Amino acid sequence: MNYVSAQCARLNVVAIEVAATLDLCASIVIEMPVIEGKALLGRHVYMLANLLDLTIRRTAELGAPAEYRTVRNAGRLKADQLVEASELSTPEVLRKYLLACYLDVQGALAPLISGSDVLIAGLDEPTCQFAREAIYRLQQATGQLQQCIASEAVLAFGWKPTLWQWVWRDIPKRPGRDERFALTRVVDPRATGDSTEAVRFHRTLMSLEIPTIEACAQNILEDGGLPIEFLVDMCRQSYDEARHADAFILGLRELRCALGAYPISLDLWELTHQHEVAMRLAIHQRAGETIGVNSAQWWSRKFEDDQAERFATLYAIIMHDEVAHVRQGNYWIWHICGNSQEAVSRLSDQAYEIRAAQTTGVIDGQKKYPIDRALMLSAGYTPVEIARME
Length: 390
Ligand SMILES: [Fe+2]
Ligand SMILES: [Fe+2]
Hints:
The chain is 72% helix and 0% strand. It contains 15 helices and no strands.
């Protein structure tokens, strides 16, 4: 095998391992009950998606592009085989799997890093640099995943999952929530008012940010055959939502409000998880996150008026992230609908009907916040659609 084909073969191994680890992360995000762990892994999927993207790009530059869907299928097959071969469906098996995955990647990339031919190593600098970067990033992800599985919080909450539960073939009926939180279909009246920042932060964290990390994880796992750009977009959103979640966790701590102080709901998950990707995007990334944009802007201004600078900044940053999420949602909806306004409108109307039929109050609010035309344009709405909103 010549040098270039050998490099591509090595990169292909990396792509498959990274894809498998990414799917594993997304599965755990949905299943694991500890919300801090969800936020941690919610950040990591973005790093892994970028790594996968880089790997495939480099194979293309070297003239033998790895095919994205083939890579993802191979990653899944690998994990499926592991599950089938294992009697011990415990975190211990998962730990072994992660270690094996990391060692495979390290083994595949080692020759790139220790290349003795100065001329070739210098010439193939992009691949060598990629190899160093890939090993570092995967080491980080594997370490964090292991920490997550073995963390005191996880053990304290008695999370003893079996590996089959994490496998992407079956999306769980409900996402994991740890013992701190009381699940209820009935929303506590305190949690629907505007009485305190704590109530607002708790509700935003548990009804919006954490469920959106989970929704992104489902989009990563059940992507309807969309290209790698969709994966990267969903992983970027997951990273954003994880940062939002962490900010609200810190904010609640500052306000001396315990996690679980108020009842929570699984409305967002229940609204979307049983639908196909296009409808999930229409219900969530388009309709839902649009409310998020307008409400974040409203809250940012309110905190500014109240001279609560830091909280105003928090909402301003979130608002700009949310604009990007709606834009991505709109982009993929138009893509799936073959750029037909009629098809988009039909999907969108159905999504609003589903929301109206199923909403209990937690994720409502579109009437309350004024619409910002410039933001809506930036979020990918057409002028006709904006006129309909107003
Ligand atoms: Fe968010
Ligand atoms: Fe968002």
